Amino acid sequence: MKSSLAIQMRLFSESGLKKDFNPELEISLDELAIKFHPLSLESVIRLEKNEVVYAAVKSSGVLKSLKEHQPLLVGTFPLGIDVSGSDVDVLINVPDLTAAETLFKKHFSGFENFKVETHAQYSAVTASFDFQGVPFEVFAQVKDSAKQSGNRHFLAEERLLHVGGASLGDKILALRKAGDKTEPAFAKALGLSGNPYDELLRLQKLSESELRQLLR
């Protein structure tokens, strides 16, 4: 039993989970290591290239203050399809929506343009504010952050941009600049019928080969 536990401890490193931005779980396999991140390397690089936004994310302390609530940074900035007026989107999991309002007021009420809104149709509460000229929106539900529709949409979009490359990214960005929201822009670029939000959830379940076939 002790031997098995020792082997497991050597295999798994949780030290990276302490990071505020893009925490990681590492698995060591002989001379190799596998790391699991919420954001792909491509999305991290796109976000880091936007120096103003990346600096605001780091210095605002938003992710650190929400650490206990499974914060996930999603949205258009890590996808590289942000336009004027885009905000930094963060998803969190809370025990109840009243707790979310208390949490938001505690940590963000001192930021510019701070506002809390309840969205009954989504069973959610959001906080919006500006930091160093960058708009933020934190979306809270009583639901695991990874399972929220916002993250599932983001994962589908991230994979589509990886498979579709710059040409798809350019199409999405053009549609976004013309006024389309993110999910409708993807649906239009891909020629999808039906509700764009439902279609993206469907695509999130497809394999990479199935996505490549779709893009053909």
Describe what you observe in this structure:
This protein is of the alpha+beta class. It folds into three domains: 2-36, no CATH class; 41-147, Beta Polymerase, domain 2, CATH 3.30.460; 149-215, no CATH class. The protein is 48% helix and 21% strand. The chain has helices at residues 2-11, 41-49, 51-60, 62-65, 76-79, 97-108, 149-177, 182-190, 196-203, 208-215, and strands at residues 12-13, 25-29, 32-36, 72-74, 88-93, 112-119, 124-131, 134-141. The strands form two sheets. Strands 4-5-8-7-6 form a five-stranded mixed β-sheet, sandwiched between helices. Helix 8 (182-190) crosses helix 9. The longest helix has 29 residues, at 149-177. It is globular, with a radius of gyration of 19 Å. Mean pLDDT is 88; it is low at 5-9.
What is the CATH class designation of the largest domain? Alpha Beta
N- to C-terminal distance: 52 Å
Question: Overall mean pLDDT score?
Answer: 88
Number of helices: 10
Largest sheet: 5 strands, mixed
What share of residues is helical? 40-55%
Computed structural class:
alpha+beta
Number of strands: 8
